[in-house]
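Appendix C reproduces, verbatim, an entry submitted by the partner laboratory led by Prof. M.T., so that reviewers can inspect both the input and the predicted structure.
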Amino acid sequence: MEKIKTIQNQLEQHNQNLYIVGWFCRDKFLDPENLDWDIDLVTNATPPKIEQILNVVWKIWAKYWTCIVSEWWEKFEITTFREDIWTINNRKPVEVKFTDSLVEDAKRRDLTLNAIYYNPKTGEYIDPENWIKDIQNNTIRFVGNIENRIQEDALRILRFIRFKNKYWLNVADSNYWEIIKRNVHLLRNIYIERITQELNKILLTPNNVQALEELKKIWFLELFLPELDCLDQYNWNKHHMEWDVWVHTKMWLEEMNKIIKRENIQEKEKKLLLIWSILLHDVWKWLTYSIWKNWESNYYNHNKIWAEIFLKQISPRLNFPKQLTEKLYFIIKEHLRTFQIANMRKLKARKLMMHKYFEDLLLVSKADCYWKTPQNIESFNQITKIYNEFKEIIKTKKFLTWNDIKKKYPELEWRQIWERLKMINEQILVVD
């Protein structure tokens, strides 16, 4: 904060003001324990004036008219108070008009909780859109006219869902939902990378199950994840008594949230892997839907079919990173086999348990066992026992390498070497 005050002093010497804006101010009120110091600054100084006064090391003119300034080797983003004139594709501003008015700058922001300003020197909050009153009422509100705000930037729909569920807020106006549904199609104009990025942030909120209900309610799932949207149309059988697959998925996600918290999983990438695994493990069930002789619903072999469809359709559609795609493919394909380990041939079971993503698969299976109707905790405990015993066994084994085989069997060609290597190492694997 001292470096920011130094920047503020330099600007004030030229009769210019400086404030911290947005999420830092919001989290200082609502989530002080997780306060992030990657701070956004705003000023009434124009970009040329900022260049004259401060050490500007980079400029982002094309998109935001933002200056990156350096103060004692630390970098800060500073944006001039501005008004967005209009936007194209419901996202990008066509023209930026600078203003020296903090009040005018606040009017162009999305939500009142992002329109609060903080003076680092005095510790004073400036609240032109009455956010403090909203937070006292535990509500989330758009700045000005909601339809205008959304049409300026459709991504604000997802930001609204995220902030509402991050802070467990109530909607200021019940009409918001109908207006959002009327405009949700505008999200199709936005790059899918931004949609997925915002969706990931929503899934990482503590109230993500409610957030999913709201994404379904506003027809977002129908547009971007129709495979997830239709899960409420498929009922379960005697092994799952949770009414339908949508209810089952939400219950499973609720349990995964508890596991993530209980096991103190902090890495965002791992949390997203576990959450997406829950959401995607049972979609496209209609392709394998059948009624057996006892009149029970069944989805035989759905895991393998869906894994391939995920790889060819969902992952490219949402532009998932390569590693996340690889991990999700494995978990979706193998999520039923975890419970078959006790009855598998030793080689097959041990090869599965040696897979580099098996422990992630085990966490997904744990959530499945602990929250389904009826529960299957004993089965999971048996799997865990087998796996823990195997981890001790594997410590005693020494597997051969390519060079070992080549040295021992110099007459073999490269393909024969691989075949011999596989055969010998499999023999080593099954011997206790």
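Residues 245-262 form the longest helix (18 residues). Additional entries are available on request from the coordinating office.
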